[in-house]
Amino acid sequence: MTTNHVTVRHRGTALVVSGPSGAGKTSVCRRLLELQPGLHFSVSCTTRPRRADEMEGRDYYFKSRNEFEELVQNEAFLEFAEVHGNMYGTLRSEVEEYVSSGQGVLLDIDVQGARQIRS
């Protein structure tokens, strides 16, 4: 008797927390990550200067304006926007590989970025 096995892969979900600057998105995301430890947090890119308490790869990927524009040209972003004179964007690599492997991904993005992702 032969048994065939079928592997079913489920796609993960991208959960978007969106709002204007200072609305409390980061606080909501931190709490969600505490409640759902398997959730991947999508680290965004920015051209703004790093603050003293921020770490590369944990809070943001800090890029020069030229580096950011090169990523835009290479279609590396799911969404990007200019906010208060600085660029912010969500890397495809921070979302697509996790969702395709069945994991949930949490995105903390502004209103402009959420509109781009929705469309």
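(ticket continues) Second input and output from the same batch:
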Amino acid sequence: MPALELRLHARDRARLDVIATHAARRVAGTHAVRACGELDDALTGAEVVVLLIRVGGMAARDHDERFPVRFGLVGDEGVGVGGMANAWRTLPVLDELAARISACTPHAHVLNLMAPLGVTTRLLVERGHRTVGLCELPAVTRRRWTEAAGDPAAPPVSYAGLNHLGFLWSAGTPAEDHPVLCAAVDSGAVPREIMRRFDAAPLHYLIDVFAAPGRRRVGRAGELAELHRGLIEEFSARPGAVIEAVDRRATPWFQHALAPALHAVLGGPAFVGTLDLPNAGRLAEVPAAVVIELDGCLTADDATLGSVPARPPAVRDMLASLATAEDALYHAARGRDRKLLEQAVDTLPLEVTSTDMRPLLEAICEQVA
């Protein structure tokens, strides 16, 4: 990539300064790194804005992971009812941030990695920003299963879905006859009965939250918070050094999505991978404005999604249900409409009793310090 000035902005100025000092020494001679205490200072004149914000910090993630368990559901900060809580909390903050981007650098590319990725990307697009949502999971998953299959002659495997809620399948080849999809079952990533149900292999988030609850453990947010505290201490004590503990927090989205996408929008080679953009009629079962995730191509001039082969009927039905719920969630969070939020919860493929609905909605809308 060309030499960059990387401007970092975050809520905690003391921690930001530690990270920026460490980063500056790590890339000295190649890129410049500067901590920006004021958001407008970071944004003004920027060619690219990268969003990696978690509104509410790790306390919010912990809330989103834990409260669904009280209702017999699986907690996650990006999907399911935990993702709804994140969206309810995040969209008003992001709306204000979108206004600052418009004022300070209206023509910048916006590379978005904020959960829940679908609704945050949609808001930025609807506010007029040149935005693409990025997630490495589909490409990394497909690559892992293809390597496990070890069959270079296998028919191609297609991907489509919402962020973290997508499917891999092969048009014209039953899933149980496809070596790549069978490798997913053989590895234990996809239960065989779920592959038979969809004639496709879902990503693990869809399985964990909607199809096979019980696989997900609670407490990841606490583990990450503790790891982050330790890393900040080491960055402060040894700025610029190789910190072995960094390897305990895998970040494949940097290597496989953000870095090549950033290079592409700065005029480098096109990034070919999965992109999150508004549907605009590509999937007939999904509302036009809902953000979908497909194979696509990103350059400095454009972001385009590829064509989509026919989906198995059960995949279409599931995507229709998930997308209808996400559409209702988006409008609920933007309009602070709890009736519409209830409709979104009710549309998800989850079992929520009428007795649980009111306390569940209160938990979704709970303020997290």
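Agent notes: The longest helix spans residues 80-104. The chain has a mean pLDDT of 96. Closing as not reproducible unless the customer responds.
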